[in-house]
User: Fold Asparagine--tRNA ligase from Parabacteroides gordonii MS-1 = DSM 23371.
Amino acid sequence: METITRTKIVDVLKSEAYGTTVNVKGWVRTRRGSKQVSFIALNDGSTINNVQIVVDVEKLGEEYLKPITTGACISVNGELVKSQGQGQNVEIQATEIQIYGTADPATYPLQKKGHSLEFLREIAHLRPRTNTFGAVFRIRHNMAIAIHKFFHERGFFYFHTPIITASDCEGAGQMFQVTTMNLYDLKKDENGSIVYEDDFFGKQASLTVSGQLEGELAAMSLGAIYTFGPTFRAENSNTPRHLAEFWMIEPEVAFNEIAENMQLAEDFIKYCIQWALDNCMDDIQFLNNMFDKELIERLQFVLKHNFIRLPYTEGVKILEEAVAKGHKFEFPIFWGADLASEHERYLVEEHFKCPVILTDYPKEIKSFYMKQNEDGKTVRAMDVLFPKIGEIIGGSQREEDYEKLARRASEMGVPEKDIWWYMDTRRFGTAPHSGFGLGFERLLLFVTGMTNIRDVIPFPRTPNNAEF
Assistant:
């Protein structure tokens, strides 16, 4: 086969170099035709669109072409011509085809028919070859690029916080342990508590639930930073919104107070959505057509509206009034309740009909590091609530007062010996600062219109599931 430099299908489809010889490589989506002419739809992952390969059966030989079935991988040399059919500008008239790998139609699971998302999760090693997951993972890449671009353009520094940690940032205790030991062999003290001195780190170590505390340290020297990496929660939550391993984006900014923090969150999320619409339209259009007819409309809707700033106390009043008027919620609503997703979505979808940033939560339901308000009852927390998703961002202004922070940590049972280094930033040149966390997969759910978080990460990690 003559060696010609490969052109990606995304570029071939834009080309107008009719009459030139090109080479494309990819996987066969479908093959149809007659004894004389065969039409192969070829895709290489660079775009959701296939290029049509037109094959003169007699010229290349019927026997030779037989193994070219759905899923096979081939390399094609041919002439780029203006397409006769609808839907694409160009097609390739094949002169040579090399078969790299066949896919037995009896056993290859992705034959040309509809497959349920549940079934595709069972073959997560092959699902990127489907139109749906090709689209989702191209969008995932683009969202990662948008995140780095947004912060870089605003002078933030990308800061790498540790994956293995000895501190529990959320005080939730649901952490995966990291050890080199057989846990049954670990020494115990007289109270039966494990002694970790023989373990690799000489103390209990876990996978991180958040890079926030270390991010705060960086903000108190570099001014404005963001983290973007994997985080781990050992919650036994088998829901369409929870993963045991997911990615988080956590900016932290010195001298920002809660109002600037809310503005940053709104600007950030709008930038990412605009980037998706500008750079992933083919993929978004496909997902809109196949899964969620309102997807594009909803993305544009978020861009068009300013986010409402709403104190928690007022939000609870609105929800209580809704109940009084006969609206049924599964979970009770009262001042002091941690709002459920149904409450958040009511505020966004039915009451305000636009995204809402809820602020000033009761301190009892929030973490120890949040700045306390003058009323002694609430803290400067903020949650950004979105249609269909509920909470997409959680953040706060941090407590910069050493005494208040120490008191709150002690009330919430966070041992000072675990966070002495964090407390030091309040002892040496403390300053107001704020930040938030965005679950990357929650953003992807919104941008792709998918409804299960397991479908926006290549290999989901959930209770009883660590396949692939």
